[in-house]
Amino acid sequence: MSSDTPDATPAKPAARPLQGPNAFTIALAVIVADQLIKFWILGSVFPSACEPFHPSPELYTPCTVPVFGPFNLSMVWNQGVSFGLFRGEAEWVRWALSAFSLVVAVALGFWARRVERPLLGIAIGLVMGGAIGNLIDRVRLGAVADFLDFQDLWFPWVFNVADSGITIGVVLLLIDSLRQDQKR
User: Fold this and answer.
1) How far are the Cα atoms of 3, 16, 131, 181, 182 from residue 12, in angstroms, in the given order?
2) What pLDDT does 2 receive?
3) Catalytic: 137?
């Protein structure tokens, strides 16, 4: 064999960069956006537009502020999972959902550290950020503050930025999974 003969073993594909840092950055962006918008909504928008308004689940006063077309800001205290599913008003439900959100966020954090596919990293970051954003509300306020209202478009739920992160993240997880199945 001469030195000019190519090696018969196929070259390994180059390792793709891990997406953990991207996932954590996206999660942090979702958390910050969610909490800043909730701070603004609860501290400025509803108090100036609704009389009386109390920013706590215990002293809840329904309030809706028309924004434009089918979009309103409607204050709803969600004591269930995303979009009010599995609603429970008992204190143990609040802490069980908080614990579940924490476990999900930690598990996603460990998973994100090993992910190589960018779409999967984005998806994990969105879900992780949404879970932590809603966890902060449950611990700090006793329930999740929901306010984005498109009910005039026959969308029956009022939601928030964290819920949006979770929903978009789950859709991207499904898309990534389908793309991986097609490659096999």
Assistant:
1) 21, 12, 37, 22, 21
2) 55
3) no
